[in-house]
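Working notes for the structural subgroup meeting. M.R. asked for a predicted model of this chain before we commit to crystallization trials. I am recording the input and output together here so anyone reviewing the notebook later can reproduce the run.

Input as submitted:
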Amino acid sequence: MSRGKILDNLGVSAFCESMARMAHAGIQTDEAIRLLGQGSQHEGVLGQAMIRMSQLVEEGNSLSHAMEETGIFPEYAIKMIQAGERSGRQEDVLFRLSRYYQDQKTISEKLKAAVTYPAAMMILIVLVLAAMLALVLPTFTQVYNNLTGSLAVSTYRYIHWAYVLSWVALIVIVILAVLLIAGALMWRSGNKAAVEKYLWKIPVAGSILKDMGMFRFTSALEIFLASGEMQDMAVIDSIGMTDCKPVEEVLKKCVHRMEEGHSFAQAAYDEELFEPVYGRMLLAGERGGDMESVLARLTALLEENCGNQVDRLVSTVDPVLSGVLMITVGLSLLSVMLPLIGMMNSIG
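Returned structure, recorded in token form:
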């Protein structure tokens, strides 16, 4: 079935958790889907998908196949559930997928806030500067021209610096706003690689992208290992889930080391895939036979780190944009008020 609109992170998380809880209660897959379909029969695409899935499962198809046929579930979720079905650990995988997509929703909301707030601030700055150039500065210019004859030959001609400053600030902010909007449109249209190519050149943005890629990788690896898949195959299958080319390149080097006989933890440590402290955690977990727990901890730490970095980015951009607005408006007003103060002193 051709893919239409993919279910959002919250919808996938809710579906996986509902299926996992019903499986835990002993309800068969076909019955669980039928019950979910009854609860979502008036919810458009999801309700129709549940009906189609119920038919497919009753015909003997697997849950992953039914999900794939509907075309509304992300490939990542389908692949994870396929792994769970092969190993007989479908319930555990569904619970983990529910948590994964809930975490993805949290990160996505923070990233949207990181883009939305600066965009709103830029619009505000553009409006204020446009008002300064269209209303405030021309009014003062006219007043001074009437008082001194011609601003260009008067002692107060430095008011033109207010125009220059406002125009420069306006042009810079408009360019930044256009780049931000163009990047957002390209991202939504599927040209993420082109946008990420430039974002990687910005240290803060590159660090966030890397941590997000690592978060997706550790989440996938944890789920693959929980499903019973062999470590080497789990790593290889998880590489495609990172959605981050630089992280994929490092992971391929790790796979090459694994082919030479090294364990994943040792290969990851040698290639500096993780921060040194995280790499040592992974080594200790592998040697202690507790790799899944360590990966779960690393996933939680990476998710928290992504959120913290986005928060820091927003907290940095906020004062910078506010500062640009205050400095530009303040200096412009000072430029037009100083002549007035000079005139008042001369009269006094």
